[in-house]
């Protein structure tokens, strides 16, 4: 079945450093979504990418969808302590009915 | 708005006791609703989803069941809890038009 993988599992950075998490799918995706979950909180939808090679920005966050639509990345420039949390990607399942979530990348930012 | 209400926020239950978690949704009719479980430090596991009243699809064989008695109400239940049922339970609804899932604030269940 559909599998969505993410690397790294954990990332510790110093405040001000950049951070990137990568998402890879075993199949071509029609679209991909990204979520952020703060410690103790619930996942919050960040963005959806649809087009091959699409790049979207939200302030210091840059999201990219691969040309083959099988991978995606989230890059954070100059991390802040407010960026702490787990970042999940999610892609449609084989039936297009629901989304399959990746295992997430947990980001720690040291002040 | 697409507000999702879940309660309680935390719950400690003994092994073998029953469970009932309720989720109610505001803002729209006939939403697709979901129950996810998240083990500590892990990803999201889809348990059940519902596309309408009385319609439940189970993704993983569990010691759990779900029901949708009303359009905006989704209930997760168990007759006898196991230690392995501990986790963070999240109710969600699927957005449309390029919007993703909206999650409730979750229930943190500890089975002791």
Oligomer: heterodimer
Distance between the termini of chain B: 37 Å
Name the beta content range of chain B: over 45%
Low-confidence stretches of chain B: none
Low-confidence stretches of chain A: none
Q: Ends of chain A: how far apart?
A: 41 Å
* Portion in strands of chain A: over 45%
Please write the string of helix (H) and strand (E) elements of chain A: EEEEEEEEEEE
Average predicted confidence as pLDDT of chain B: 92
| Overall spatial form of chain B | globular
User: If you compute it from the alpha carbons, what radius of gyration of chain A comes out, rounded to the nearest whole angstrom?
Assistant: 13 Å
In DSSP terms (H or I, runs of 4 or more residues), the helix count of chain A works out at: 0
Q: What is the count of β-strands of chain B?
A: 11
> In sequence order, what are the helices and strands of chain B, one letter per element?
EEEEEEEEEEE
Major sheet attributes of chain A? 6 strands, mixed
CA radius of gyration of chain B is: 13 Å
Principal-axis shape of chain A equals globular
Structure report:
The complex is a heterodimer of chains A (111) and B (112). Chain A is an all-beta fold and 111 residues long. Chain A contains no helices and eleven strands. Chain A has strands at 4-7, 10-14, 19-25, 32-37, 43-49, 55-58, 61-65, 71-76, 85-92, 99-101, 105-110. In chain A, the strands form two sheets. In chain A, strands 2, 4, 5, 9, 10 and 11 form a six-stranded mixed beta sheet that branches. Chain A has a five-stranded antiparallel beta sheet with strand order 1-3-8-7-6, with no helix packed on it. In chain A, strand 9 and strand 10 (99-101) form a beta hairpin. Chain A starts with a strand and ends with a strand. By secondary structure, chain B is mainly β. Chain B has no helices and eleven strands. In chain B, strands 2, 4, 5, 6, 9, 10 and 11 form a seven-stranded mixed beta sheet that branches. In chain B, strands 1-3-8-7 form a four-stranded antiparallel beta sheet, with no helix packed on it. Chain B is globular. Chain B starts with a strand and ends with a strand. In chain B, 35% of the residues are buried. The mean pLDDT of chain B is 92. The interface between A and B is medium-sized, with 21 and 20 residues.
